[in-house]
Design goal:
The protein is α+β, with helices and mostly antiparallel strands. The longest helix is centred in the middle third of the chain and has 31 residues. The radius of gyration is 27 Å and the shape is elongated. A 7-stranded antiparallel beta sheet has the order 2-1-13-6-7-8-9. Strands 3, 4, 5, 10, 11 and 12 form a 6-stranded antiparallel beta sheet that branches. It folds into 2 domains: 183 residues, Sandwich (Immunoglobulin-like); 151 residues, no CATH class. The protein has 10 helices and 13 strands. It is 38% helix and 22% strand.
Length: 366
Amino acid sequence: MRTLIGFYILCLLLGQDLPFLLADDVNFINDSTQNLCFATRLSDFLPPPYSNISDSMPCTPLWNTFVLRYSENRDNVMTIIVSALYTTGWVGVGFSRDGRMVGSSAMVGWITKKGHAKIKQYYLQGTERDQVVPDQGELQLQKVPPVVALHGAMIYLAFQVKFTVKVPRRAVILAFSSVYPSKLGRLSKHDDKTTVIVDFSKGAILARYLRHRDPLWYYLHISIQFTGFIFGLAAVILGIRLYNRIQPDIPAHRGIGIFLLILSILQVLAFFARPHKETKMRRYWNWYHHWIGRISLFFGAVNILLGIRMANSGEDGWRIGYGFVLAVTLLAFIVLEIFRIRGSIGSPSSHTPPSFETHPSSTSSV
């Protein structure tokens, strides 16, 4: 069996018949997956009422090690048991009215590192990761508590939900990840990460205009900015040594350099003081982080010009070269900003794959 690594998504249509699977997914159902329906008696470890009806439920292998068991009574109450091979992270099943992710609700379960079983309902407000809200949703869960159980190498999610009307088929979304949810139940892999902006404009551009390439933008942004911080710190050390050797009369250049060093340290400290997205302080932290970064970019560009002017008072080559680089950077900023305002780039809602996703075409083929 393959370890569940990364993040995978499967769409199906749940109805009175066997689920309708996408053609590409059928190839993943092999004999070992078929045997998962008969290898274990769920009544041996699931609590009532799941243990009372699980052995009589129709069992359908879906994809890889995913297996679905379900039944629906006359009151439109559906009992659902989803199982899959489990190592770490979480397993989830969602329900959509129109086959789309936005507006759907999901049940997600996992086993914590300490061995505690957890299950929560999530409401998918939008396509951004922070819009997958825990402990909210439109699923009408019944009085029977949802259950998560780990039996052998398999995890089982069992719950009862009531639908307002009986429909022939329902759009269902399956998803899993090898990454544990955060302490607050967030499913995003990067909730506890941060970025540091010091004085490299490329890192700032990546953070602003490549957010739809998650997590690529984050790794590029933090790599470039950390490299910028190291170079900036090295420049300060060299500047101090040079000042002690020749005692130059350049108070403006020296003062701005010290000011930039303080700003860069504040940005590093922002990593340790970063509040969670749901807290009221997050807005003020964003202002603090963004504006210190912008001020650093501005004074960094000014200080480079001062340094070139003092080091090459009679030569224009360095000033022309740096002026060209600065002009190209500003031009790129203007062009990218126009595209961002028009919504062509940098829009997580139109490019970033959400924590749950479905293919609209999968519901239209039936």
